[in-house]
Amino acid sequence: MLQLGDEVVYFSAVFLLVMLGTRSAAGASLLTACLYVFMVMFRFPPVPADQAGRVLRPRAPSGGVPVVAHRGGSHDAPENTLTAIREASRNGATGVELDLSFTTDGVAVLMHDETVDRTTNGSGPVSKLQFVQLKRLDAAARHRLKDKFSVEKVPTLQEAVQECIKHQLTIFFDVKGQPDKAVSALHEMYKKFPVLYNSSIVSSFEPKVIYKMRQTNPSVVTALTHRPWRLSRFDDGTPRSVSTWGQLWTGVLDVLLDWAHHHILWKLCGVSAILVQKDFLSLDYVQYWAERGVEVVGWTVNTAVEKDYYQNLLKIGYITDSLLEDCDSHY
Ligand SMILES: *[C@@H]1O[C@H](CO)[C@@H](O)[C@H](O)[C@H]1NC(C)=O
Ligand SMILES: *[C@@H]1O[C@H](CO)[C@@H](O)[C@H](O)[C@H]1NC(C)=O
């Protein structure tokens, strides 16, 4: 009902704008009609609600909201490792969020950054390392609990998937770039482990990743990730661009992207969820999406007070760096 309402408003707005601009009712009608046909022809319907529900509302042991360990729980264990996955399960997470990356010989592995410097004892871009070279590195080398966990390997995507299945964890696959490689590697995983259709979701900041994923495999549950002002500001709020014009321009793009995410892209991609930076969440915001059949998941929720707000007020799932204690955000 509401979705139809949205559409009537948008297409009327387009019609009016074009009509005012061109002073031609025929031209405006034609353009609006073309736009409508484009949306209908090129959008992917969302996966069935019961399938999305299995992924986004898995049985939480305590009856609470779903709790997803960010990068496997980067505060509690070395991020994006098999140990992190095991720890997350032991500490009561319902799922883990994992980052996909590729070695120079095309092996899908877990790594958040473009380089291995921050998390391992190696250096340089992942994309310049052979898998055999990456395998020799210690993924626990830079972690605050490195003595507790000693040596950890960088896992392959498949190893991580199998570990999650073993522990019945939901997986949030986070895809940053390389849409073609990522989509084909993930598609392989869904073919090999069909249980993933009921227990995983592919998310990205990039709508084209999600669109491509659904084009390749329309049965996959997907989400768009959103952080307002992402193009103009870093995670900590400082401007990306030093020039005033740069800031202004990226700011305009941010407004457009924000509008597109909330009004067009979610529908075109047929996403089941939107993953939103926690500072921009409210009950009204959650309600906006609930009316459109889309779940909201907040990130990165790291304090007991915030977790309580999600559990008792918003009643939605969240992504956290720690299942055990309050901690700072690990960007
Ligand atoms: C990193 O640590 C592992 C395990 O201790 C070791 O085998 C490897 O040689 C180290 N690599 C570098 C580049 O220091
Ligand atoms: C997903 O779960 C439903 C309901 O339990 C089940 O019928 C279906 O076979 C499952 N799909 C896969 C691929 O495991």
Q: What proportion of the residues is helical, as a percent range?
A: 40-55%
CATH superfamily of the largest domain: Phosphatidylinositol (PI) phosphodiesterase
Give the low-confidence spans: none
Structural class: alpha/beta
CATH class of the largest domain: Alpha Beta
Gyration radius from CA atoms, angstroms: 21 Å
End-to-end distance, in Å?
Answer: 39 Å
| Number of helices, where a helix is a run of at least 4 consecutive DSSP H or I residues | 12
What would the average pLDDT be, to the nearest integer?
A: 92
User: What small-molecule ligands were found?
Assistant: 2-acetamido-2-deoxy-beta-D-glucopyranose
Quaternary class:
single chain
Structure in words:
Keywords: Membrane, Transmembrane, Transmembrane helix. The chain crosses the membrane at residues 12-38. Helix 1 (2-22) runs antiparallel to helix 2, helix 8 crosses helix 9 and helix 9 packs parallel to helix 10. Helix 8 (179-192) links the parallel strand 4 and strand 5 (200-204). The longest helix has 26 residues, at 244-269. By secondary structure, the chain is an alpha/beta fold. Helix content is 44%, strand content 13%. Strands 1, 2, 3, 4, 5, 6, 7, 8 and 9 form a 9-stranded mixed β-sheet that branches. The chain has 12 helices and 9 strands. It has 2 domains: 1-42; 48-320, Phosphatidylinositol (PI) phosphodiesterase (TIM Barrel). The protein is globular, with a radius of gyration of 21 Å. It has helices at 2-22, 25-42, 49-56, 82-90, 131-135, 146-149, 157-166, 179-192, 207-216, 244-269, 283-290, 304-314; strands at residues 67-70, 95-102, 108-110, 170-175, 200-204, 222-226, 273-277, 295-299, 318-320. The chain starts with a helix and ends in an 11-residue tail after the last strand. The structure holds 2-acetamido-2-deoxy-beta-D-glucopyranose (2 copies). Residues 54, 194-195, 197-198 line the site of one 2-acetamido-2-deoxy-beta-D-glucopyranose. One 2-acetamido-2-deoxy-beta-D-glucopyranose is lined by residues 121-122, 136-138, 151.
